[in-house]
Each structure stands twice: as C-alpha cells, then as structure tokens.
Amino acid sequence: MKVFVLTNLFPREGNLANGVFITRRIEQCVKLGIDYTAVPVWFKDGWLDSLARRLLRKEQINPVKEFNGVQYSRVDCKRKATWLVWRLIRKINLITEEHIIAKQAESFARCVESRFDLSSFDLIHAHGMYTPPAGLIAQILSEKYSKPYVLTVHGSDVNILMEKRKKVYLDVFESAQAVIFVSNALLEKARSFGYSGKNAVVIPNGYDPQIFRSLDKDQVRRQLGIYTEGYKYVGFVGNLIEIKRADKLVEIFDMIRKGYPKVKFIVVGVGHLRDKMEQEAEDKGLEVLFTGRLDQSEVAKYMNAMDVMVLPSRNEGWGCVVLEAQVCGTCVVGSSNGGIPEAIGFQEYVVEEGPDFEERFAKKVVEVLRSGYDRQKIVQRAQKYTWEYIVKMEKQVYEAVLQEKKEECITID
C-alpha cells in the first residue's frame, strides 16, 4: 500500500516536536508495511516574507527533511503574493478568506504535481485544514488523479477556522472517502456547522510507550534538581497561548498555592505569553519554573515529576499530553472543553466551563493534592492508546476505503 501524506503539521527547524503526532504515526506506518511519502504543506518565504517575519517577531517556518528516521519530502513552493500581502488582504477584507485559501491550495497542488507521480499512489491522507488546508489540496489532487483521500482533523482547524471557511470545509469533508476526528467532541463541532458525518471515524491521538512511562516521582525530581521534601508539584505542558488559557495560568497557580501552600509549579512550553506570565508570577511572589521548549524525553521527566498536570484549555481537539501524563502516573485536571473530557476519561477530574472557572479549577486541583488519586488506575486506563494501536485502526480505514474503491471499479467494469 502506497500512501501520499499531505500535512499542515510537521517538524520545523527550531521546533522538531511540532506535529510530533504525525511523525509517530508515520513511524508505525513503516512497521505495518505501509509505503509512505510525507509532504509538509508550506510556502517558501522570499526575502520580503523573511524580513516581515523578523520585524513582526513571527517564527520562520522551515520544515526539516528528516526527524527520528522519518523522511519529509519538502516541496519548495512560493506564494504568488507574499505572506505579508495575504495578511493585509485578509485584514481589510478585499477578497474572502475562502477565495484566498482556494488559490493557495491550487498553487500548492501544482507544485506537488511537478514533483511527484500521483498516479503511483493508492490513496492520499491529508492531516489538517489549516492554511492552506492540506485537505483541500488532497481534494484537488484526488479529483485530478482519481485517487481516494482520507482527511484527519486535529482541533483548531475545526474549532476555530471552520466557521469562517464553512463552504470550502464542508465540500472537502463531504467529498472525502473518510474523515478522521481525534475526538467525538470535534466531530460534533463539525456537525454543528452542517457536516453530515456520513463518512466520519473517531480515532484519537496516541502516545509513545518508549518515552512516556511511569517512574518514581521523588527520584525524577532529584535528577532534575527540583526536589523539596514534603512538597507537591503541579505543572502545565503546552503552548503558552490564549486558547490553552495560559493567560490565566499564573492566576490559577496563585489560587492553588493559597489552598495548598506546600506546592511547586512547573511550566513546560513556549509561546508569546511567556514574558507576561513570568512577570505576573514575580509580581505575585510565586515561584514557577519555566523550562522552555524541551524534547519529548525531557518532557516525560517533568510529567513524571508532577503530581497534577493542568489543562484548562478554552478548546482542544484531543490533547496528546493527557495520555502522556497519565501513563507517567500523573493525574490530569482539565476543562470540559473540546475533547479534553474524552482524553481524561475520569469525570471527577473535569471542571465545567462557566463563571468563576479559574477559582473552581484551582479548588479541584487542591482537592486532588489533599486527597490523592489512584495512580495505577490512571496508568492502566491510558496504556492502550499506544501509537501502534492507533495506527492499526487508521490502517483499517485505509483498507476499507481501498476496498470500496475496488468495488466501484468492478461495478463500472
């Protein structure tokens, strides 16, 4: 089986962990005998784009060609207009956003055609409906080469972007042979915008058991140089951005400390809110360890060091970090938004969105710190969601799609 993978999510120079759940999938595809070609969906910056990004302090997006043995076939495709021009056009509403992404997708599809023989592949698997949408590019190529396509959506592409790009997204969703959602909540969100769900499949993200596993917490804390006898540890792992509610994280930490004084805080991740968060913590006299960006093996150590990991996100497709923390023997307390409750799996650790959310969230964490939790129960619940298990389910989707395609051909003949 030959699969052509188009992905909006991929490892980048300076951020190899970006889209790591795509890399992990492909690793398992190889083990299952699936021949893949993975193409990052991006546009190469010209000199004006590079200058604009530097001035606006925006991250340069340059895919790597290889990460953990997984090959990414970079297509150096240039925009017809610069990144900055597209931003300005969107800002002043000269043309619709749907028109812009359609033009960008058509341009990228042509670049792909010039580089690869699409007729040699059995199917196309697109990850993401971001900018330009990998799923839209897959649809264009599918129609031209009569190849079935599968789409996986991961969270904010549906939760944030779909509403203003509804017409294009619905057409891509309904035309796909299968649309994989990482949670039931994400599927229901797509349905709220008019998606029929006739070709929907729910398959969550997984975790790597070679990296994430339960260790002795005190021993890990000593290795990291953060051990203090008698203290509990509360942490956060993720991007320091508003949708993760990182803007309220220090406030939540402060309320936790007031309810449980012998506690230390850890924040693993990067984002534009970091400086503001550090200043806020200093103003409150709150000791918070900001680790910055770490590779996954280091993330696993800090997850093991935590008694509770918090995920107060305003929206979330699934949340890989939930399973990763749970198999490390760490209790996760999360919001009721998106796929978080499904990922956590224990209603008692879910805090409903609503008035006084931060106060109620902090209260729940304090309750867990005081009462403790069944560590083994949490570990056992998460253990089945390995990447091997997840990708075997995705392979079943591939096989069903190809069988359906074969039966269509037989009927036509």
From TrEMBL:
GO MF annotation: an example: glycosyltransferase activity
Gene3D superfamilies in the cross-refs: Glycogen Phosphorylase B (3.40.50.2000)
Keywords in alphabetical order: Transferase
Pfam families: Glyco_transf_4, Glycos_transf_1
Residue ranges of every copy of the Glycosyl transferase family domain listed in the record: 218-384
Sequence ranges assigned to domain Glycosyltransferase subfamily 4-like N-terminal in this UniProt record: 108-210
PANTHER family: SULFOQUINOVOSYL TRANSFERASE SQD2, TEICHURONIC ACID BIOSYNTHESIS GLYCOSYLTRANSFERASE TUAC-RELATED
Name assigned to this protein: Glycosyl transferase group 1
Species for this entry: Fervidobacterium pennivorans
